[in-house]
Write a structure and sequence with these properties.
The chain is an alpha/beta fold and 260 residues long. The protein has 11 helices and 9 strands.
C-alpha cells in the first residue's frame, strides 16, 4: 500500500494496552516537537497469550486506522506485536516508517556483569524466532534465561501497582532467581512500570528495556525521510483505547506521569 508521509503528520504509537506508554515517554523525550497519538488495545490485552495470526490481524487494523488519519510513522510499542506483525506490515506499507521494539538483550550482554541474564517476557515473545535469533546473536557469552511471565501484563493493566497480589505474582514468576542473576531484560513494554517491584523481589539487579533505543531509531528514520517537525512546533500527546471508560483513560494518564 502506497502511503505519502508528510512532516506535519503524527507519530502513531500502539500497544496491546498500557505498556507502550513506557515507550511513548521515551519517544516524547527524544522528539518533543512531534505530535503523538497513542492507542492501547486494552480490550484485547494481552497480546502475548494470543496466536501470531491474531496479533497480526489486530495490529494491521490499528495501523490501517492510523494511516487513514494521517500518520507519518508507526511505532509498535509492543514486543509481541513487533515479533508477530512488524515484518509483514513493513512489506505492506512500503515507504512508511514502522519502528518496532525488541528485548534489550544486546546492552545486557555488553554490560560488565553479564554471566546470567534473566529475560522476562510474554510467552509469544519467547516462543517466536525473533527472540531466538536475538539470543543466538548476542547471548553466546551469557546464560540467557527466558521466563514466560503469564498474567503479569494483564495484572499491570489493572493498575494499583503496590498491591500485595502483584508482589505475590512476581514472587511466583521470578522469585526463585533472587540473588542468582546479573541483570534482567524487561521484554514486555508493560514491565518497566513495575521496575521497583521487580527489584524488591529479585534484589538490586540492573534492569534493561528497549524504550530509549526505539526512540533513537524513530528519530533516525524521521530525519532520514525529511519528516521531522520544525523545532518551533509544540508537540502534543493524545490517548485512545479500545476499552472505553473514564477509569481507563485515567489509568493511561496516571502511567504517563508515573515516576518509575
Amino acid at each position: 500500500m502506497a502511503v505519502t508521509a508528510r512532516p506535519d503528520g503524527f507519530v502513531g504509537v500502539f500497544d496491546s494496552g498500557v505498556g507502550g506508554i513506557s515507550v511513548l515517554r521515551s519517544l516524547v523525550a527524544e522528539l518533543p516537537h512531534e505530535d503523538f497519538e497513542f492507542f492501547g488495545d486494552s480490550a484485547n490485552a494481552p497480546y502475548g497469550e494470543k496466536t501470531a495470526p491474531e496479533v497480526l490481524g489486530l495490529s494491521r487494523s490499528i495501523v490501517e486506522d492510523f494511516v487513514a488519519e494521517g500518520a507519518k510513522c508507526i511505532v509498535i510499542a509492543c514486543n509481541t506485536a513487533t515479533s508477530a506483525a512488524a515484518q509483514t506490515l513493513r512489506a505492506e506499507y512500503g515507504e512508511l516508517p514502522i519502528v518496532g521494539v525488541e528485548p534489550a538483550l544486546k546492552p545486557a550482554t555488553l554490560a560488565p556483569r553479564h554471566g546470567r541474564i534473566l529475560v522476562m517476557a510474554t510467552p509469544m515473545t519467547l516462543r517466536l524466532d525473533k527472540f531466538h535469533k536475538l539470543a543466538e546473536r548476542w547471548g553466546s557469552d551469557s546464560e540467557v534465561i527466558g521466563v514466560p511471565c503469564v498474567g503479569l501484563a494483564s495484572r499491570i493493566e489493572q493498575g494499583n501497582l503496590e498491591a500485595d497480589d502483584l508482589y505475590e505474582l512476581l514472587e511466583d514468576l521470578v522469585g526463585e532467581y533472587r540473588g542468582t542473576v546479573d541483570s534482567v531484560v524487561l521484554g514486555c513494554t508493560h514491565y518497566p512500570f513495575v521496575r521497583r517491584q521487580i527489584k524488591r523481589v529479585l534484589g538490586d539487579v540492573q534492569l534493561f528495556d528497549g524504550a530509549e533505543g526505539t526512540a533513537r531509531r524513530t528519530r533516525s528514520l524521521l530525519e532520514a525521510g525529511g519528516l521531522l517537525r520544525d523545532e518551533s512546533h509544540e508537540g502534543t500527546v493524545s490517548f485512545r483505547s479500545s476499552k472505553q471508560g473514564a477509569e481507563e483513560m485515567r489509568l493511561y494518564h496516571d502511567l504517563y506521569e508515573l515516576d518509575f
